[in-house]
Structure to design on (492 residues):
């Protein structure tokens, strides 16, 4: 992975990169960043290592962002305990493992998150999930996203049924995604196993659902169907999906806009 | 026309008849646990045993039966694409039934011999293949913890080479998918449903504790059946 490719804009920037010119790894902080979708993403600070003699290495690490809502805000569909463990333990574990890998492997340094995912294939990818579930959620998508869903699936109900079916027929651990396919230029439902992200197939994720057992076992035990239905009816944040759709449309040409004939 | 239909129809007598005159597919039912749900505490909680046995294993069996019926139907009709399409459901649900049936026999309460190290030919074979029982346990725990996602970690024996092996399989794949001559002696379920309620995400703790209720007697029996002389 060359340095020149790292200037490319990222499709979805989930995590915050902080460049710390001098500090050795032990002093590196795991900073908590204030959550907000509207807030601009952190920009990497300048690399001053070349003007400072004493420095031999520059480190960039990923931090764990807070989800954009309080941990008990998703009750009664997802308990506070589930979020505490899923975000606080599992997600944090993925981030720490990721940082450890970055420490070891210099060539990965400086890449955007999407490039990392493509290179490492089965990387941890729960970042997108916490943006999916939002406090004022459920209902239906609106405007452009709804139109595209209706175009590609027939109706929103049909899409919801297909999504739920995909979630229930996924064997083992994995994720179900609503992606915008770059080549086919349409929306599609995709299942991935373990921690694979559709970015590796060059598709753009719009919305996702974690169907690893750890994401619902504490609240629903083995009742996966109830969890998936509750997610689709009450938890999915179409606002966040709409934001991602807008960004995605910058990369995929979905055809001529419909101009009404007079 | 009715006469012609009767003459060309296949005689039912060539197929074994059920009550209604249809060929019946063998259905499976949930095997009983050889101990109480709470008998494996504190290594595995009774709530987990309850859910694992009555919900998860039962679901595999139900879906396996359903898939077998659909398969039988498709085979009778000669519908090749449906037959192939059903293979993944059969592998998953059938594998789940096979694996869990072995799993319940692999565990035993402490007062019934759970956790007692193997003696006899299996004990000797373990020392021969891995150096010591501790080394084997360490190896299996390491592989189990490193497994990404859902799956099983197995201690098996290669029938043809007469060698013990440690293998992992993903999802509900039975050990035989890793080699046709492999026979499972012990299997540990590392799907999250097997430990999450008690151990949360700390799979290594679950792996460390499950050895306290491991039924080595069963493993020895299976091993001796394969290699009666040694």
């Amino acid at each position: 992975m060359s340095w020149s490719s790292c200037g490319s804009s990222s499709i979805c920037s989930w995590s915050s990169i902080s460049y710390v010119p001098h500090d050795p790894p032990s002093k590196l902080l795991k900073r908590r960043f204030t959550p907000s979708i509207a807030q601009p993403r952190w920009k990497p600070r300048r690399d001053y290592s070349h003007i400072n003699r004493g420095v031999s290495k520059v480190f960039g690490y990923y931090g764990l962002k807070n989800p954009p809502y309080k941990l008990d805000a998703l009750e009664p569909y997802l308990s506070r305990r589930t979020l505490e463990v899923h975000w606080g333990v599992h997600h944090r574990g993925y981030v720490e493992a990721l940082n450890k890998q970055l420490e070891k492997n210099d060539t990965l340094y400086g890449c955007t998150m999407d490039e990392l995912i493509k290179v490492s294939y089965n990387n941890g990818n729960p970042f997108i999930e916490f943006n999916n579930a939002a406090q004022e959620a459920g209902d239906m998508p609106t405007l452009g996203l709804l139109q595209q869903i209706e175009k590609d699936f027939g109706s929103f109900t049909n899409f919801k049924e297909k999504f739920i079916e995909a979630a229930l027929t996924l064997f083992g651990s994995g994720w179900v995604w609503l992606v915008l396919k770059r080549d086919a230029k349409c929306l599609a439902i995709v299942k991935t196993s373990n921690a694979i992200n559709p970015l590796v197939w060059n598709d753009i994720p719009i919305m996702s659902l974690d169907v690893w057992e750890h994401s619902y076992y504490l609240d629903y035990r083995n009742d996966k169907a109830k969890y998936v239905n509750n997610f689709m009816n009450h938890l999915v944040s179409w606002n966040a999906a709409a934001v991602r759709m807008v960004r995605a449309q910058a990369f995929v040409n979905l055809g001529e806009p419909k101009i009404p004939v007079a | 026309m009715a006469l012609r239909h009767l003459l060309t129809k296949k005689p039912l007598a060539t197929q074994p008849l059920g009550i209604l005159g249809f060929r019946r597919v063998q259905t499976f039912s949930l095997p009983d646990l050889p101990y109480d749900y709470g008998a494996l505490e504190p290594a595995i909680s009774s709530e987990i045993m309850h859910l694992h046995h009555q919900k998860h294993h039962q679901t595999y069996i139900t879906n396996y039966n359903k898939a077998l019926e659909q398969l039988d139907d498709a085979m009778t009709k000669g519908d090749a694409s449906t037959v192939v399409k059903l293979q993944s459901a059969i592998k998953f649900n059938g594998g789940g039934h096979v694996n869990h049936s072995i799993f319940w026999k692999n565990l035993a309460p402490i007062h019934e011999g759970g956790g007692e190290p193997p003696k006899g030919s299996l004990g000797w074979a373990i020392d021969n293949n891995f150096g010591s029982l501790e080394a084997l346990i360490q190896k299996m725990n390491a592989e189990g913890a490193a497994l990404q996602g859902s799956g099983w970690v197995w201690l098996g024996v290669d029938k043809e080479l007469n060698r013990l092996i440690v293998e992992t399989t993903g999802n509900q794949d039975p050990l035989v998918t890793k080699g046709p001559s492999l026979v499972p002696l012990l299997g540990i379920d590392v799907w999250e449903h097997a430990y999450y309620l008690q151990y949360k995400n700390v799979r290594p703790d679950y792996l460390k504790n499950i050895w306290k209720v491991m039924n080595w007697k069963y493993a020895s029996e299976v091993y001796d059946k394969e290699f009666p002389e040694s």
